């Protein structure tokens, strides 16, 4: 399982003196980028392939508070991947210094062609690198329909209401 360890900094704490929501997002992002950089998705490789990752959603589940003073670990596993690698779903788990799971997150995203500004499949080598990440027990092959499973769509308002 891929993991990163973090020291909780003063700036990671909220008004309730526990780990702030933004810190969870930052720790997960750092963990994902660490895995990607360690597995062929560095800046040069992504620039050569003209791709970048985009996040569709992050659903965080909080189980217990965690406070500054002891390090925490954030894991990364692959929950889903489309056949062409365009769509991916990750699971992050947060563990305290005793290995107790205090939060979990399901995150879905895709790869975007940075010139065309459209979603794109992964080159085969990068697909294999991503697919090499440890899979969750409930791993599945993703389709476009999986990205729409919550039925959320934009709802514009009249500009006069702004």
UniProtKB/TrEMBL annotation:
Any Pfam family: 4HBT_2
InterPro entries, A to Z: 4-hydroxybenzoyl-CoA_TE, HotDog_dom_sf
UniProt KW keywords: Hydrolase
Similarity field: Belongs to the 4-hydroxybenzoyl-CoA thioesterase family.
Protein name from the UniProt record: Thioesterase family protein
């Amino acid at each position: 399982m891929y993991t990163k360890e973090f020291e909780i900094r003063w700036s990671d704490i909220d008004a309730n003196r526990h780990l702030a929501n933004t810190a969870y997002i930052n720790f997960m992002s750092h963990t994902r980028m660490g895995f990607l950089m360690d597995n062929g998705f560095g800046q040069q490789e992504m620039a050569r392939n003209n791709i970048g990752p985009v996040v569709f959603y992050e659903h965080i589940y909080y189980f217990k508070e965690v406070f500054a003073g002891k390090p925490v670990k954030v894991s990364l596993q692959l929950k889903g991947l489309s056949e062409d690698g365009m769509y991916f779903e990750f699971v992050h788990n947060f563990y305290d210094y005793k290995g107790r799971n205090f939060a979990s997150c399901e995150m879905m995203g895709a790869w975007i062609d940075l010139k065309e500004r459209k979603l794109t499949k992964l080159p085969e080598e990068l697909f294999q690198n991503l697919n090499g990440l440890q899979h969750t027990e409930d791993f599945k092959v993703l389709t476009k329909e999986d990205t729409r499973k919550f039925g959320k769509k934009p709802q514009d308002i009249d500009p006069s209401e702004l």
